[in-house]
C-alpha cells in the first residue's frame, strides 16, 4: 500500500496586516510633516496662482458675455437691413408700375393730349 507523507509543523507568524497598518500610519503622517515645511514664499506663490486662475475665469465669462451681446446687436442690424431692402424693392416695383408707357399714354389721353411713342421717355 501507499505510504502517507510525513506531517510537518509550521510556525505561526504574526499577520502581515499589522505591519501594513503601521506603514499606513507613517504614510498618512508624512504629508502633514511635508506641509509644515512649505515656506511662506511658496504659499504666496501658490495663492497668487489661484487668484490668477480665478481672475482668468472671471475675465473669460465677461468676454463671452460681451461677445454674445455684440453678436446680438449685429443680428438685429442685419434684420433691420433685410427689412429695409424689402421696402426698397417694393417701392422700386411700384415706381416701375407707375412709370409704364401705357399708363402714361392713358393719363395723357384722359387729359386730351396727343402722344407719340417718340416723345415718351423713362427717367430713372
Automatic annotation (TrEMBL):
Cross-referenced InterPro entries: Cell_div_FtsL
Subcellular compartments: Cell membrane
Keywords: Cell cycle, Cell division, Cell membrane, Coiled coil, Membrane, Transmembrane, Transmembrane helix
Lipid bilayer topology: Single-pass type II membrane protein
Any one GO cellular component localisation term in the record: plasma membrane
Any GO BP annotation: cell division
The organism's place on the tree of life at top rank: Bacteria
Segments forming a coiled coil: 81-111
TM ranges: 44-61
NCBIfam families, sorted: ftsL_broad
Protein name (database record): Cell division protein FtsL
Amino acid at each position: 500500500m501507499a505510504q502517507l507523507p510525513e506531517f510537518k509543523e509550521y510556525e505561526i507568524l504574526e499577520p502581515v496586516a499589522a505591519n501594513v497598518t503601521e506603514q499606513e500610519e507613517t504614510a498618512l503622517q508624512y504629508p502633514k510633516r511635508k506641509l509644515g515645511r512649505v515656506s511662506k514664499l511658496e504659499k504666496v506663490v501658490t495663492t497668487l496662482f489661484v487668484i490668477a486662475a480665478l481672475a482668468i475665469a472671471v475675465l473669460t465669462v465677461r468676454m463671452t458675455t460681451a461677445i454674445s451681446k455684440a453678436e446680438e446687436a449685429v443680428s438685429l442690424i442685419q434684420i433691420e437691413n433685410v427689412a429695409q431692402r424689402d421696402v426698397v424693392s417694393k417701392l422700386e416695383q411700384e415706381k416701375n408700375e407707375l412709370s409704364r408707357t401705357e399708363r402714361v399714354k392713358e393719363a395723357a389721353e384722359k387729359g386730351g393730349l396727343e402722344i407719340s411713342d417718340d416723345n415718351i421717355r423713362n427717367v430713372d
